[in-house]
Amino acid sequence: MKKARELAERAREAALREENKERAANSQLDGATNEAEVGNPDSARRQVAEALALSPTRVVQVNAGIALGRSGDRKRATAIADELEKKYPAYTIYKNIWVPAIRASVALDANNPSAAIAVLHAASPFELGFEAHLYPNYLRGLAYLEEKDGPNAAAQFQKILDHAGIVLNNLIGALAHLQLARAYVLQGDTAKAKAAYQDFLTLWKDADPDIPIFIAAKAEYAKLQ
What we know:
The chain is mainly alpha-helical. The protein has a domain at 127-225: Tetratricopeptide repeat domain (Serine Threonine Protein Phosphatase 5, Tetratricopeptide repeat, Alpha Horseshoe), CATH 1.25.40.10. It has helices spanning 2-17, 21-38, 41-54, 58-70, 74-87, 92-109, 113-119, 135-146, 150-162, 164-167, 172-187, 190-203, 212-223. Helix 5 runs antiparallel to helix 6, helix 7 packs antiparallel against helix 8 and helix 8 runs antiparallel to helix 9 (150-162).
């Protein structure tokens, strides 16, 4: 994460030198979403504020909405989703993928997994498209985890692992191993859970030791020994 932050800042500075504020803002928002996913919400929200101040374009707003929803700012995330829905009601990518993803993120933060699952239904026909990167599946899997539905959660995370060519370098490609392990724990399948934890911890064997989700994963794995 430390190296990623450095590289994201270099990308942002390079974009600003070319006077491409939107690209600079999106570079910052990629980092913000990652911070949110690994458990650093304060950092995520700070980066979102800076990115929106730099370039509040519609693409930036979409990425900001996701990062805000995942970092617990439900009010601002909902406002962005409402605005996108109002301004672009017929734009398939927003209507069926990213607005539902923002609303699902808000629902998850509000401990309402059933609402998250319901709103993500719109993304189902598009989730294997390159635009979505299977992110709706990740959110749906998290919702099933909250509902203690191990089998359905595992199916969502396994789909991510089975389609690495769509996920590319998105952080959920690694985190899906951890979430799959948690799904197997819910099912009482200790052997599969251990294997999935090991897959994640092997991928992150050189990870920064202070990453919250990494600390949690090691503690959960230790309990299975």
